[in-house]
Predict the 3D structure of the following.
Amino acid sequence: MESYSVLYSASQRTELLARFQRLRLAGRMCDVVLETKGVSFPCHRALLASSSDYFWALFGEAAAERLAPRVRLPALTPVGLDVILDFLYSGWLKVSAETLPEVLEAARYLQVEAAVSICERYMTDELGAGNCCSYANLAERHALPEALEAAQETVAWEMATLLRERRDHLLSLNLPSMMAVLEAEEIPAVKEAELLKLALEWLSENGPLPLLQSNLLLSRLRFGLVAPGDLVPLSHAHTATGTPLIRSQVTRALEYHGAGSAKPIRQSKQSTLRAADRVLLVGGGSNPDCPERQVLAFHLKSRTFATLTSCLPLGLRNHCVCSLGGFLFVVGGELVSEDGGKAVSVEISNQAWRYDPRFECWLQVESMLQRRTKFTCCVSDGAIYAIGGRRAPPHGGAPTTLASVEFYDSEAGSWRRGAPMPGPLYGHASAGLEGNVYVSGGLSDDPGTVPIPGQTQSRREVLCWDRKAKLWRKVAAMSIGRFGHRMASARGYLYALLGMYEAFADIERYDPLADHWTTLRPPLVASFGYGTAATPTGSVLVFGGTKWSDGQQVVLKSVLEYEPKKDQWREICRLPRPLTDTECALLPVPD
């Protein structure tokens, strides 16, 4: 058998199309004329049939038009048809924002799927506040799923701008897209009351709709995020809000608003903010003796900081913070009174405050049973645990160290005594993991001395409050004793970070299944008094803190990230100002 080679010329197809285009433009050898709106386009029947399923069927053996010299296409515009014909003859699609609807209509009608795909990609790439609504309508009409999803996401993301500048665009949005937007998990800088008003305006503009459709639309609103004063008159605001389904959702929202202290454990999608998680940095400041009341919010994606409009009600240090049910809790610590930027009095506190980011308000909840400072708290199994610490004696004298534990019962709105630790501790750290509470390090001595490098007062021991067994038990100890350190829980592991008086800068990871600690890479800066938070992706963030430099304490602006998979530290950004002794919690907070 004779051997041979098969070689391909990429230029052959391009040249073939170019020759057909020249023939068309010159009007030579054309055997069919396409006509729309009085404009004629001489073409070649064979090329059309080989490039479009529509023309293949139109010029088939059984079709009446297979030999017709002229074919009318009244559904298309001359602009759209001309662009698609140029595409069939050259492979180039000339499209702009103005011609896109006509070109897409022609491409879909003539079943030129390659042109449809290009139009969809063009829409996705060009999305913005000015065209997202019209592109959503166009994508929904022509069944373009990728462009439709991207357009709906853009509408949700640009909602604040659209409400302010292009409300008419929103009111012209198609029903599936409006429902998808109201289902979005994040709509920056827009309150739910504004979305409620928009939905009612949209129904007035596009209604009346069948009750099933209006129910589907309004049920995507989160009535728990609307103030009670705006919910009460809702049943009379529009006929669509008077249906049994919507009335029941409003009733549940009002019940939620009346739940008081139980709100954190009565959460549902109806009361969940349409916002991404932020790390809140509560308390602390450039001077550890004069804590600031401003609360910083760190955006995990953009790595930027913003300041909450509502400040911390008190100046606090050595306090604890945690999040539960989308609320921030700030408990205990030392109340610092200032005069001219200097601390003039310090009082150990048992106060507890709750911040609701939905309505940007602080509420003082029931105080702890004991006043505590240099204690630790964490959330486990829906309860806030306050553990150990120090308290001032009732009649003065040196502070005493506590072994007591108490937990906050949100249902009852009160603090209850828990099982005490085996011994008193302060300067320790804690974290919740898989329903249990872990407590590491700290000091158990009562005297006013503090540990110094090279001595062993700081404890290596780690205790675990076993929720099922209802007892404290010891687990594997850390490799070194730690005091004033932090613990973080991420992806099934515990991380013990640096303390105040450590001779080494090692951090450790605890595996509860193996009951074993592993030494990890030390951070870039050996510091203490920093804030820390574990992110949803499993990394650990360290904010600010204090380090020793030439015998002086220097307050830091760095934000460090530890990536467990790479066992690697890096500085990801800088704080707006030096910050030490801050406490951190992860919480969804609106822009």
Summary: The chain has two domains: 10-220, 277-588. The radius of gyration is 33 Å. Residues 10-220 form a domain with the Potassium Channel Kv1.1; Chain A fold (CATH 3.30.710.10).
